[in-house]
Amino acid sequence: MTELDDPVPGIKAAVDAARGQAFLKRIASAPADALQDVERTELKGLLSARQDLKAAPGELKKELGRSVNEALAAATAAIAARRTELESAERETSLEAERLDLTEVVGRVTRGHRHLVTQARDELEDLFVGMGYAVAEGPEVETDWYNFEALNMPPAHPARSMWDTLYVRLGAPASTLLRTHTSPVQIRVMQTEPPPIYVVIPGRCYRRDTPDARHLPVFHQIEGLVVDRGITFGDLAGTIEAFTGAYFGPAIHSRLRPSYFPFTEPSAEFEVSCIFCEGKGCRVCSQSGWIELGGCGMVDPNVFTAVGVDPEEYSGFAFGFGIDRCAMMRHDVDDIRHFIANDIRFLEQF
Ligand code: FA5
């Protein structure tokens, strides 16, 4: 290179190098650390070449300046494109490495399955469907009218305190709530279909209950409702006994103990013989031989009146019990909180 070709020493060489295919090719295949080197050395070279240009004479300065700028732009764009390429490749690799296989359980591959409470719900539904019942569902967010008032509990009725209620900020104060039981769906069913009614209603319920071995603030109930001509308390007792034997096995029996619910009259708690000692008496059943599972009774005439069913013509019974409690008893689970702990060692046993 002569003095004439390169009036400002180094500029032409730098521009030629930056424009040269070899240089751009080097960028296109450079690994991350090499890219940094290129940026540090070559790009810096071009930048300082631009500085040197200040010393060049007028016309030449203009011409060389354009060349340097073009070379700089080409090199910068090539470096940016390569950097984007490297970053996305790196992201791919780390995503692949962190991919979580939800079906993989330490050392072996297995499929997931329904939660034990869902299995219990499905089994209970099947059992009642086998006895001629239909299955219905209702909303988990309810109005005060369905959850309490239509069930014979007007505002300020003391029986409301049997349920620790969670209200939702919607509409008038304390008018909307998370249902405390599945009983409001009795009302919805009777409003939409005329008797005869044979229905079970499974679903989630909410109460302001502190979690302990037998309580959760979110749990599941299955409600039963029968409305027909000539239904008696004997039909209720027989139905409970049939369900008990079918779900827990022939060694387990049921009994009804007088109780109170505002929406049934007479009302009863129903108990099943303790599955752990088969009724002999043990620590779990407090030596009584019986474990309480739910409430039941004959539908109160006031409830029939609230939904326009004639209590002179029809009678009926209703019951409601805990699905989680059923699953606990049937599978010997000593603490209801296991159901929501999400510990795979517990869940995979069922
Ligand atoms: C009721 O909820 C009535 N609706 C039942 C009923 C229906 C009576 C129809 C008459 C006619 P109770 O509050 O006792 O009743 O609840 C029934 C069952 O739900 C309990 O026996 C228990 O098995 C289950 N249960 C109640 N609270 C919880 C809780 N916090 N955690 C788990 N299970 C619960």
Secondary structure layout:
Elements (H helix, E strand, L loop, with lengths): L10 H9 L1 H8 L3 H21 L5 H41 L5 E2 L2 E2 L6 H15 L3 E2 L5 E3 H4 L18 E2 L8 E3 L5 H9 L4 E10 L11 E11 L4 H16 L5 E8 L2 E10 L16 E10 L1 H6 L8 E8 H9 L12 H4 L3
Parallel strand pairs: 3-7
Antiparallel strand pairs: 1-2, 4-6, 5-6, 7-8, 8-12, 9-10, 10-11, 11-12
Helix pairs in contact: 1-3, 1-4, 2-4, 3-4, 5-10
This protein binds adenosine-5'-[phenylalaninyl-phosphate].
Adenosine-5'-[phenylalaninyl-phosphate] binds next to β8, β11, β12 and α10.
Describe the protein.
This protein is of the alpha+beta class. Helix content is 41%, strand content 20%. The chain has 11 helices and 12 strands. It has helices at 11-19, 21-28, 32-52, 58-98, 116-130, 144-147, 184-192, 233-248, 301-306, 323-331, 344-347; strands at 104-105, 108-109, 134-135, 141-143, 166-167, 176-178, 197-206, 218-228, 254-261, 264-273, 290-299, 315-322. The strands form 3 sheets. A 7-stranded mixed beta sheet has the order 3-7-8-12-11-10-9, sandwiched between helices. It has a 3-stranded antiparallel beta sheet with strand order 4-6-5. Strands 1-2 form a two-stranded antiparallel sheet. Strand 1 and strand 2 (108-109) form a beta hairpin. Helix 3 packs antiparallel against helix 4 (58-98) and helix 5 packs across helix 10. The longest helix has 41 residues, at 58-98. The radius of gyration is 38 Å and the shape is elongated. The model has no long low-confidence stretch (mean pLDDT 89). The site of adenosine-5'-[phenylalaninyl-phosphate] has 25 residues, from strand 8, strand 11, strand 12 and helix 10.
